[in-house]
Amino acid sequence: MATDTTSTSLESAAQGVSVTGWEAFKNSWFYKFTLFPLGQIFGFILGVSVILTVLALLLAVVFPEPRENINLTQQIARQLPDMIIGGVSIGFVYAMIALGYTLVYGVLKFINFAHSEFFMVGSVVGFEVMQRIGAAGEGVLEAWNPILLIVALVLSGMVISGTLAVIVERVAYRPLRGAPRLVPLISAIGVSFLLIDVVRGFAAITRNDFNLTYPVSQVSFFQQRPEITLTPENAPLLQFWFTAANRDEIDIGLRMTSLIIIVAAILMLLILNWFVNGTKQGRGIRAVSQDMATAGLMGINANLMISLTFFLGGAFGGAAGVLYGLNVGTVTPFVGFIPGLTAFTAAVLGGIGNMTGALLGGLALGLIETFLNGILVYFPAFGQRYTPVFTFSVLILVLLFRPSGLLGAKVDEKV
Amino acid sequence: MTARTSSTSNPLAQMLGFLKQPMVALVAIIAYLLLSLGLLIGLDRGSTVFPLLSMIFFPPFVLAPFLILASPLDGKIKLALIAIQLIILLPLLGIFDSTYLELAIQICIFAGLALGLNIVVGFAGLLDLGYIAFFAVGAYTWAMFTSPIDTIFTINNWTVSANAFYGFVFLGVFFAGVAGILLGLPVLRLRGDYLAIVTLGFGEIIRIVANNLGSPVNITNGSQGLDTVSRPSADFLHPFVIGMEQITGRPIANVEPLAYQILFYFIAILMIVVIIVVARNLENSPIGRAWTAIREDETAAIAMGVPLTRMKLMAFASGAAFAGALGVLYGAKQTFVSPESFSLIQSISILAMVIVGGLGGIRGVLLGAVVVTLLNLQVLKNLSLQINAWKNVDAVIPGWFIIAAAVVVGGLLLYWAYRQLRAALKRREGWFSYLVPAVAALLGVYIAISSFGAQDFPIANWPSQLEPARYERLVFGVLLVIMMIFRPSGLLPEPRRKMELAASKREQEQNKAAGAGD
Amino acid sequence: MANLLEVNDLLKTFGGLTAVKNVSLVVPQGSISAIIGPNGAGKTTFFNLLTGIYKPDNGSVNFAGRSLLGLRPDQVCKAGMSRTFQNIRLFPGMSALENVMVGMHPRLNINMVFTILRVGGFAKQEVHVREKASDLLRFVGLGGKGDEVARNLPYGDQRRLEIARALASDPKLILLDEPTAGMNPQESEAAMGLFRRIRDEKGVTVVLIEHDMKVVMGISEYISVLDYGEKIAAGSPAEIRANPRVVEAYLGRRATEEANKNATRA
Prior knowledge:
- Chain A has helices at 2-14, 21-27, 29-62, 72-108, 115-135, 140-143, 146-173, 182-207, 220-223, 239-245, 256-278, 280-290, 292-297, 302-328, 337-350, 355-376, 387-401; strands spanning 212-213, 227-230, 250-253, 330-331.
- Helix content of chain A is 72%, strand content 3%.
- In chain A, helix 4 crosses helix 15 (337-350) and helix 5 packs antiparallel against helix 7 (146-173).
- Chain A is mainly α and 415 residues long.
- The interface between A and C is small, with 2 and 5 residues.
């Protein structure tokens, strides 16, 4: 593939075909690493949202009134903006965790079971830093520039989780390289449990409590809820929506923390995309994931690339942890398990080893989960309690019927 | 445990060489048994350090069977000695202090579970992370039919007679076996690591479902669980307990619970014996060989006429069946069953037992079960009790002790890092990573000294959340990582079947790549 | 002589690559046949199709009067077709004897209750299994090596152990995939003797894939030649030697073939 593209571009250059402005733009850094991926993400979110809304409305047709005085169509129409925004924000969190699974899998072909704990550690670090800044005095947190505060929190989460991931790889995985597949997996399970209790012990020693509540209430910026009110006047095209919701106007309330997640995640994902696809180090990682031995022969330090991969994965997990903590408010040392498994499901759904797949899988699962949560409330026999069951079922079904994922290439089994 | 060491170069082995004579060994073992029992019985329960001492003295006593097995005695004498220890000495100890009996029952249950999981993971090489679900099936089988709580199985307060327990053990085996087949059927085609994750998912699904089936139809009573589950009658043991009371001259406060303990202890021992026999019979049979073959090379196995799915299902179902029987016992013993008892951590703890002992070997797995259960249910718990006991008497950790401990630990770590660093520099390898433990050691010593100074640390200030009993994850985690890195074949590896774990996949892949060429 | 195996129009493609293209073949009962062809001609794929490891896209396989299409590898083995692998695939951690014992699996009573309770002749079966496995080891010349772990056996012994394992299921037909690869001339000579004994003493029909022309011409009664997945010739060794297409297929790639031969000999 790679040789094909180079040869065609060489040919076109040799033939003297003039490169139009549009094509030059298409080859530009800005298009390749910003506009195009952004468009993809946006299109995907739109598509999934539309499909889910249609499915939800179909459900509403089958069960118009699941509970007394509850009109499902109205409820769906009223909750739609919240569900989509909530789903996208948690979806980005899943996507950022899923990237860690997928990066490591791509390079080592190994499920890093402990990855969910890098996320957990990130969320605890974020709390710890924010708490410590706030402990300096009354109003200190408020005095900080909120953007700077977020950057500081996310960066500290990234650095510590990333470093931790590198150490874990060095200590618990590297000595097992080349062993049967299950050996490092068992080691990873051990690391996961170990990290949970180490963090728990740390929390016990420092504050004798492991329900760690981010002091978000001390920052008014995080409390803001920018609202957009849609009325028939400013949005005449959405008349059908007002009818469905049986409201004169619809308030789209944005939680500031959700917005922060979305913006931060997009920025970081763009940077990651550029790093992996546009830099020498990224090329090294991709080379190692293709063939570690050959990459070594080509002068690439495979161990260094693996450490770098773990750092990237851990850092993204840590950042996701901080953003998640800011959003949900309270984190514990056990917070990693369910998001971790959901993210792993996302990675598998998208095709493990495939970065785009992880991103899209995370977004899809986040949206589906939020829609389910939003709608299952009205079905008392099921309820939200079964959401994890849903996630596990997706995981199991994908592994059973399409283990290479939706975007992964199907590999013929050879004997 | 050193009696088996055969290498004569080991000075310890040379010193203990005289133990190789059977008569000497026999006398030594009897003395050991009586001494360890006497120490435990002689402990002063009122002492402040009782939890600590009990924690130190109990393991040597429980581990005695492994010492006996390792001794150069004749097989029949070994069996007789183990029988004496398990059938006479342990219940005797239980009459003095029933917590030991409780521990022994727990050990038996976990040992049985570990042996069951060993069939799946050790024999057939299928990593099952949801194994505890089958235990839950057994426990719920018994609890749903005998708990007076109003579930759909107990309409009009009708419950199954308590003595149906013995029949329900077989029912538990049956249901768990069926559950094993039902769960196994879809997943057994999967590759090793995916199988692990999917079984984990199934285990969690079963737990979540059990947690939520309190409504709309009450099947499991949801997260509150089922209580006052029936126990088979232990009345026939009352005269025995009263007789023991007279013989030992120790007043027994409550005859009934002790009688139950003794009953469950013997049921558990019986189950373990049956499970060991079944596991051995399976291992040394065409079925066991087929499992090993599958573990080593699936493609070759199927080409040699081993039906993969059927054999894997057999492994899954027989492992599950063991868990089902033990689940029934567990439900009856606890008289309370709730989804909490069947979480992922339980599956992992059983996996840790199998791995610590040594995959595939029955004796090793038993040792692993004893060691891990002791660590989890005795060492951690007694440390907590000890801390509380010290709290109550306002004990302090002297400042000099903290500093000395920090310096010793830090110094050892530094020394290790120095050795590694020097070696790495000599080999011209990456040395940088060894700086991390060195820096951590220095930092730790600094923190210990600076924050505690030369002050005494009152144990009353010990954070309540830092209670060792709750840190079982730490133990399992450390055990798994350390075993994988340093001793993947376990403490008592099967001599021939070293760690194979699903056959070397790398080898398979190479073969696949090469096989496709022509 | 009746045909034990009849293959008609067997087709297998991987993506765009046609690995086996409408190959038809008959194997008479009690014969020794060979399939030859340059590297990558589809010989091993053909074996994999016969034994059920791959599913053919088209064609039929009739073996001893029944169709093998759609059977799993273990069912094919049970039906009486056993095989060895090009790159030895023993159970490396098991002893030589156990390897052969696993090979007897399709002929044994595999029953949970029977095994756990050890009733109804279980012990007798175990004794029989052990004895027969020892006999087979002796037959291939590994007598006395039964307790050695397969991975520790020398290369030639591993090849012979694989043959013993394949014979353990009492096959009617045994497929040997490059059984003399990596052997020196003396070993090859001994192996040829073994193949003949498999047919003469055990009454098992033999089909082998082989590169060593000395072995092929010296032992086989029928030879089929595959090239690029197609059967280009079939017949007795003399006919094959004289067939211009075969000569072309081999000479056209003489350099590589020569190199391969040297590599396998080395």
